[in-house]
Input
Amino acid sequence: MKDFVIRTENLSFSYAKKKQALKNVNINVPKGSIYGFLGPNGAGKSTTMQLLTGILTSTEKNITVFGKELNSQIPDVFSKIGALVESPSLYLHLSAIDNLRCITELKEISETKIPEVLELVGLLENGKEKVKHFSLGMKQRLAIAMTLLGEPELLLLDEPVNGLDPTGMSDIRELLVKLNKEKGITIFISSHLLAEIEKMCTHIGIINKGEIRFEGTMEALSKRAQGCSILVETSSLKKHFECIKTAYPSTKTEGKNQFKVVLKSKEEIPAFSKFMVVNEIPLYELKIVEGLEEWFLSLTK
Output
């Protein structure tokens, strides 16, 4: 049997006088994995994160962390967990080092860990700078450094790339993969961005309207989302549209002279190209659009 760091069994939760936020949520996070908890805004991601970190409590005792029921381990279990839920709480008037020093005093951790975590997140040279001068990406990396001070076995990160530019997203993604591979830290990360989750995660759970729609490895997800969409540019689409539509009923216009076609697999692209040539339809551009995004959107509508 696999060693799971986090497991929930039929986890449900309702806020007072509001409809059910979570309904029979089953999550299985293997040790050593990067688990992406994916879903649109309002799907139940933050509620789940708050339950996993004890901010909200479940009386049903159906959350297991490190093989034991969560409530029975609070607060001691948090010595093995680093958590960043919603926006990081930083003292902007203090330096990065002083922000980290606050955490070491609170958790009774040696200050000798500060340079180590700053180096891990790529902020060693910025340690003495005031946080108010940091970019959003640097603030996010500092917040992750705070979670690393206690040498956690598990990181819980709620939307860590939210609001970052592409460079900032890439930096955080590379950092998390590095922590997972070099330190062996299990990472549970929530996000609404499929592309980011797809690039870094080994396992994934998709939640929508408080219910799990899919859980498994990224490989299993790719197999479930079989198919290939292509975006094609031609000329005088109006003139050729009926011919294309007859042969490929999934054809949809995407612009003046662009259209999208859903094929069963990438292997059908040569036959499609031949169809265009045989029917003397100009083929200016053909771009593969992965089918995973469309499948994800169909799950979360």
In short: The mean pLDDT is 89. DSSP finds ten helices and 14 strands in the chain. The radius of gyration is 23 Å. Residues 124 and 162 are 23 Å apart (CA to CA).
